[in-house]
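Side project, low priority. Logging it here so it doesn't get lost.
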Amino acid sequence: MRHRVKGRKLSRTASHRHALLRSLATSLLRHKKITTTTAKAKELRKFVEPIITKAKTDSVATRRYVAEKINDREVVQNLFDDIITKIGGRPGGYTRIVHRGQRKGDGADLAIIELVDYSGVMKPKTPKKEKGDDKVSEPKEDVKAEDKKEAKTKKKSVVKPQKEKSSKEKTAIKEKKVKTTKTPQKKGS
């Protein structure tokens, strides 16, 4: 029975698991949003949220504590300068886990873990065109055909001029071809 057993081993040794969580935490704080398996995301949440809570008080000791857990100095600086100013007023719950379905290769459950106030960080989607806009423009097939014809004529008209080789160069090339057929020499003679 697993009474009072906390945490997930993630099929790793303790040192490997700790390195994995440090790496995931660094990536999360750098990019504000990462995709990983659901189990790793839930463990990462338990690893990152105390770090963010600790970073609310800016002192040398807390910076050293956070620097032990996070691999990158720039990310630590960014945490204390930008992230804490944006989510410092929250009393916890700094991350959000959104389930994405299953991975195609092995069927593992995937999840997106993101910092709550940075949910709009991803690239915005391009707006869809309205149906009326397509009718005004010319058919795409005609435009593509015209572009292809123009490109072919340009390729034909652009011909690289070749340098004529002098008679000395021609003889030098012939001599090189003749010299390349050497007989192997015996060792020690």
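Brief comment: The first strand starts at residue 33 and ends at 37.
Revisit when time allows.
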